[in-house]
Amino acid sequence: MLKMTSENNSKYIEFTMQGISDLPELQFPLFITFLFIYLTIVISNLTIVASIVLYNHLHTPMYIFLSNLSVIDISLTSSILPKLLDMLFTQCKTISFAGCFIQMYFFMAFVCSEFLILAVMAYDRYIAICHPLHYSLLMSSKMCAYLILGDVIGSLLDPVLHTVLISKLSFCSSHHIDHFFCNIFPLLKLSCNDTSYIEMWTYIFSVVVGMSLLTLTLASYFFIISSILNIKSKTGRHKAFSTCASHMTCIFIFYGTIICLHMKPRSMYSPGQDKLFSLLYVILIPIINPLIYTLKNKDFSKVFKQIKHY
Q1: Which of 25, 27, 131, 160 is most open to solvent, judged by the fewest CB atoms within 10 Å of its CB?
Q2: Residue 274 contacts by C-beta under 8 Å, 6 or more apart in sequence?
Q3: Residue 131 near residue 89 (C-beta atoms within 8 A)
């Protein structure tokens, strides 16, 4: 379970992970299930990206941001599922010290990136619906590039301090991670150091950043809905509300799972609950995003009809 040259030198630790289940008879069925899920996520999101790249009428800010969301969803899932699939297939559940923290870093970076892009997409719709005459000015190509660049830089910087602080801890109580990937609280649970300052930093940072972006997202949709109420046509109002409701469902699932996991003290940590909520934003959200943003979309309907025609 553990390979070390020195008891106090964490650099030589090899962690083991619990995975999804210990039952031998479930390993292959779980492997097939998660392989199917992973391929579905990758193919559906790549289809969106390819459609936006290939069809000129989709070269607008809304669809450019949507393509970024699809890339983020693929990346988020790919930071977790390939390793999980390897563990299920080979039954080798070890992960190196460096591999564990690389996985944690990129997982946190892609979660942060999704926070940011969802806020940007909500703001884009707010400008389009509430200030349509100024849309081309406020959402110019240069502004889109700045927003995407800000998303990339912010998401890469966000996990740095968390990763550095946790990697400096001594993991002397155990080296068995009760999870299917390297996440903050399962790792903190293994440390024999005082981790209260890391927990406090994680909580404060999550509240400040997460709640700020959630407030911006909800404020955008509040003004959007207020504008929709002024639409005279019942059909128009119903269609607009239907679109907003589906978008907000996705947002609430994403934020709800993150809040339940990261905005609570370590004393309330539950491995089973943590795994369940982690599965929601590692698997469920990357699957439902393509459905929510394309299912009733006229532009994508045209694309899919053209593809069928060929």
Answers
A1: 25
A2: 179, 183, 185, 186, 261
A3: no
Q: What is the pLDDT of residue 297?
A: 75
Q: What is the pLDDT of residues 124-160, one digit of tens each?
A: 989 988 888 889 999 999 999 999 999 999 999 989 9
Q: What's the token pair of residue 75? A: 């990346």
Sheet holding 176-177, edge to edge: 94-96, 14-17, 176-177
pTM: 0.88
What are the residues whose beta carbons fall under 8 Å from the beta carbon of 192, sequence distance 6 or more?
170, 171, 172, 173
Q: Which CATH class is domain 10-309?
A: mainly alpha
Beta bridge partners of 94: 16
What is the tens place of the pLDDT at every residue in 74-96?
A: 999 999 999 999 999 998 999 99
pLDDT for position 7: 45
Name the DSSP letter for residue 234: H
Which residue has 């069925």 as its token pair? 29
Token pair for 8: 């106090």
